[in-house]
Design brief:
- The structure is a single chain.
- The chain is of the alpha/beta class.
- The protein has 13 helices and eleven strands.
- A seven-stranded mixed sheet has the order 1-7-6-5-4-2-3, with helices on both faces. The chain has a four-stranded antiparallel sheet with strand order 8-9-11-10, covered by helices on one side.
- Helix 6 (152-164) links the parallel strand 4 (134-141) and strand 5.
- The longest helix is centred in the last third of the chain and has 19 residues, at 254-272.
- The protein is globular and about 60 Å long.
Length: 347
């Protein structure tokens, strides 16, 4: 462990003090388990205020579990899920969706991290054809693994297409907070009103200790999710410790201020390196992720200053693309120190 901030991932940061205090408070005395405590109904009400009265929320432990539980209520084993070829669902969940759902993932080309419905159209002929996995879900990440953010119009187009062809829409919202802060919008306008069916709602990457949520927006799907969560091994006996985090998270819009700071620090990093020779920003900065193309010899010493990951090694001779993820607690001073180290190597 290091007290020096890392730029490797937003799950490298600690727990926000307000969340830690909420956990300490929830630890006083006894409470009934499995959600029969006083915190869980408060958290459920907070989610309804964000998404609308039709939202039913099921708290879970982690992001992969959130995605698997969310999708379990949407597909049968002979059906298929469309997702980005760069998505966490496809690359970084160790085959969990396919193992636990028995379903097929169909990766689509990624354009700055995003998918396009035009790439789904050729697979629509599979519907009703007994020799093919049956398309059933379109899963998008908001934000994407490239840090890009789907606009309201882009999500609406996907939802309209899905409804036209009898498909569900799932949103992997591990960084939904960053997207909402970037777009200056709200959950109901961006997701519920557009026809999204289920959201995997993140929190661990934004100051929580270990809590995610499956938010079911389609009332026709509500009935099975309580059992799906238990069957999927994500029903917490001491549920109050998950719920208490979200109660504090939403109070005074802490979650949005955390996300806004992370986004601002990403923009600040990109702006700060703009005049550093031999450092090149790759793509646009839309959320809390920055991608930089750097000389390979710079990488080890810079990782000593603030650890980060190589995204694509040796993209050109002697250079690699690196990913920098800003967390809720990163400061301008942290970024300044990192950029100062970079300037020394550039001089």
């Amino acid at each position: 462990m290091t007290i020096q901030p890392m730029f490797a991932s937003d799950n490298a940061s600690g727990v926000h003090p307000d969340i830690m205090n909420a956990l300490i408070e929830a630890n006083h005395g006894h409470a009934l388990g499995y959600g029969a405590d006083s915190y869980t109904p408060k958290a459920a009400l907070a989610f309804k205020k964000l998404f609308g009265d039709q939202a039913e929320t099921f708290l879970v432990y982690n992001g992969t579990g959130s995605n698997v539980i969310a999708l379990k209520g949407l597909v049968r084993s002979y059906q298929a899920i469309f997702c980005s070829a760069e998505s966490h669902l496809w690359i970084d969940e160790a085959g969990a969706p396919e193992q636990f759902l028995g379903t097929k993932l169909i990766p689509l080309p990624a354009y700055g991290g995003k998918i396009r419905v035009s790439d789904i159209i050729p697979r629509l002929g599979d519907i009703g054809f007994q020799h093919r996995s049956q398309p059933k879900v379109i899963s998008i990440a908001q934000c994407t693994e490239r840090g890009s953010v789907y606009s309201r119009d882009e999500i609406k187009a996907i939802c309209d297409f899905a409804k036209q062809h009898g498909l569900y829409v799932h949103v992997d919202g591990a960084r939904i907070h960053n997207a909402l802060a970037a777009l200056n919008t709200d959950c109901k306008s961006l997701l519920t009103d557009l026809g999204v069916d289920v959201v995997s709602f993140g929190g661990t990457k934004n100051g929580l200790m270990m809590a995610e949520a499956v938010v079911v927006l389609n009332p026709a799907l509500h009935a099975d999710y309580a059992v799906i969560r238990k069957h999927g091994m994500h029903l917490a006996s001491k549920m109050r410790f998950l719920a208490a985090q979200y109660c504090a998270y939403f109070e005074d819009d802490l979650w949005l201020s955390n996300a806004a700071n992370a986004n601002a620090m990403a923009r600040y990093l990109a702006d700060s390196v703009a005049d550093v020779s031999d450092a090149k920003v790759v793509g646009s900065v839309e959320s809390n992720l920055v991608f930089l193309d750097l000389p390979n010899e710079w990488i080890p010493p810079l990782q000593q200053q603030a650890f980060f990951h190589i995204w694509k090694a040796n993209t050109s001779e002697g250079r690699s693309e690196c990913r920098f993820v800003m967390s809720f607690d990163v400061t301008r001073e942290n970024v300044d120190a990192f950029v100062a180290c970079m300037r020394k190597m550039a001089s």
